[in-house]
Amino acid sequence: MRWNKFFGIDLDRWPAIARYMERIGSRAAVTSAIAAETAHA
């Protein structure tokens, strides 16, 4: 769900989703997957 930044969607309107993204984004598996995705981009 990182596409919101690409489309300029501010998640401040949806605080629950913003908190969810912070929680999920801090997980080691997620940071590892994002790093792998950006390495191939």
Automatic annotation (TrEMBL):
Organism of derivation: Collimonas arenae
Superkingdom assignment: Bacteria
Entry-linked SUPFAM superfamilies: GST C-terminal domain-like
Designated name of the protein: Glutathione S-transferase
